[in-house]
User: Which sequence fits this backbone?
């Protein structure tokens, strides 16, 4: 039996048809506003944690989505460092270091993660 995408993702056809790619994203950021900060990253992390799995993470360029998914994965890997996040992103076709705001989020998140690991 072939199922529709809406059945696989438990989304109604009406919800799929009503989806507006120009609408604000799940983290409440206007998608045309390309400035990312730690507050935005925190909202995205909360949304990713709360979202049903499997999930699709999307942004127009792919860089922010890639960074947030890799940072979420890095949280479960104590030995993973910021350079590992960048290396993995590059292997996927994204040079996160060209996005200054995203690179700063990666550095700050990985630095905070490292401090938590050292102090626990």
Assistant:
């Amino acid at each position: 039996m072939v199922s529709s995408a809406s059945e696989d993702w438990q989304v109604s056809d009406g919800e799929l048809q009503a989806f507006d790619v120009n609408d604000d994203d799940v983290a409440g950021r206007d998608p045309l506003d390309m400035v990312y900060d730690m507050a935005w990253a925190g909202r995205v992390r909360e949304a990713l944690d709360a979202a049903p799995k499997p999930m699709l993470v999307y942004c127009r360029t792919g860089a922010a989505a890639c960074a947030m998914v890799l940072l979420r994965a890095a949280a479960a890997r104590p030995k993973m460092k910021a350079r590992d996040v960048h290396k993995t992103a590059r292997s996927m076709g994204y040079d996160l270091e060209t996005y200054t705001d995203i690179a700063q989020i990666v550095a700050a998140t990985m630095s905070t993660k490292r401090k938590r690991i050292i102090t626990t």
